[in-house]
Design brief:
Blueprint: H1 9-23, H2 25-38, H3 41-62, H4 69-84, H5 86-115, H6 121-124
Length: 139
């Protein structure tokens, strides 16, 4: 039996993990926050505008163009308004938490595949001394 066979212990445990995530009350709330945002045209437009303006300013800086104080103030004002919007703020929090969950799970799996066993907390921490690039270093 291969690791990817339909009835393999690895896939069964993967499905169990997925069920645990999907059934978690916090996860359900995060999904609701994302859905509420996606249904709110005003919050989405506000988010899109701030995101695009932030990208524009970043590109200008990257190109060596000095930003005018008015540009910075305008962006910060729009960003502050976005963060005061309950729907957008909840979405941003949910997005961050879901991305952190995804990174953590991926880190566990990637490290397990690299070292051949369940990693310790020290091996998962960024302070472990390893370069993190799958180099095989023993830190």
């Amino acid at each position: 039996m291969t690791l990817l066979a339909e009835k393999s212990p690895v896939l069964e445990k993967t499905r169990e993990l997925c069920a645990a995530i999907a059934g978690d009350a916090r996860f359900v709330q995060l999904q609701k926050d994302v859905e509420r945002f996606l249904e709110d045209d005003s919050a989405r437009l506000m988010y899109q505008t701030v995101h695009e303006r932030g990208e524009e300013l970043h590109q200008k800086q990257h190109a060596g163009i000095k930003l005018a104080p008015s540009e910075i103030k305008e962006f910060e004002s729009a960003r502050d308004e976005l963060l005061r919007n309950d729907v957008a703020s909840a979405f941003l929090d949910a997005q961050g938490e879901l991305e952190a969950l995804q990174r953590t799970i991926a880190k566990y799996i990637t490290t397990t595949l690299e070292i051949g066993r369940v990693p310790t907390e020290a091996e998962l921490s960024d302070e472990g001394g390893c370069c993190g690039g799958g180099c095989g270093c023993s830190h």
